[in-house]
Automatic annotation (TrEMBL):
Gene: RNF32
Segments for region (Disordered): 1-63
Protein's name in the database: Ring finger protein 32
MF terms in GO: zinc ion binding
Domain RING-type: 104-146, 270-334
Matching PROSITE patterns: IQ, ZF_RING_2
Keywords (A to Z) from UniProt: Metal-binding, Zinc, Zinc-finger
Amino acid sequence: MSKNKGHSSKRADHSKTKAQKRESRSKSLKGNTKAIIDTGLKTTLQDPKVEDPEKEYVLDPKPPPLTLAQKLGLFEPPPPLLSSDEWEKVKQRSILQGDSMQPCPICKEEFELRPQVLLSCSHVFHRACLQAFEKFTNKKTCPLCRRNQYQTRVIHDGARLFKTKCATRIQAYWRGHVVRKWYQDLRRTVPPTDAKLRRKFFEEKFTEISHRILCSYNTDIEELFSEIDHCLAINRSILQQLEDRCSHELTEEDWEKIQIQALHRETYECPICLTPLPGSGDSHQDASGMRCSQTSRETVLLSCSHVFHHTCLLALEEFSLGDCSPFHACPLCRSCYQKKILGY
């Protein structure tokens, strides 16, 4: 009985301890919980220990252990590690040689963004290429100058040059695109100087404008024909008025007034051939006292009071193919005229 009581008391104590532990855990969780507000924005983890991807570093910061032959003096020990100033001099010598601008001497490919190493002898290789060369030759010698026990440093000169080249190429392509677009817009707006190209340019323009008008305008054939008939009627009425005005015969009194206006103009030369008119001050008398003119051409007076040689005016009327009588225009005032031949 005593044993059973002891077991039951142990079980009760164990259950009490479990309940106490649960309560303490719940209290600790309640104390550590914090209200979180979901703003919908992605939270970025800020790692203060992010290393610079273009940082340069030495691959073997510690010298290799001496071999037994080197300890006994049979072989020379490896040279001491280069300082930062010495590495800077080695890098400047490599830059002057232009090693990063040339392909890798092992694989003959550009460095681009692949890891790149600088040796203490100022030669530059791909890191993977140098590791493969060391594994193949089973010794640590420079592939170019055969220097033993070199030191290696990771650099990023080739990657920077490749990024600059890519940026330059992108800018060149973009500038070319902008210039080509500008040139296409210029060709669409400015006509060329060559006659054939200029004709083709205006043909394309007229075709484009016509197509645009046809697409934007719903043509009613009957309305179009009625509008054409109306325009033709208006033109016929205007031409009829012009013909009536030009076909109106002038009287002798009208011609006298027009001749007086012509005399007031004091015209002594024909405006077409620029030679003196008969009756002007350029005529003279010969030895027999007969009055002769420098020209035997007749003079014609127009209803606009301008005076010409008759032959000159006839030649001009024949030359004006677009005009037809009685719609000839005066060479000076461009008005329709009636003419009268004057006798001197």
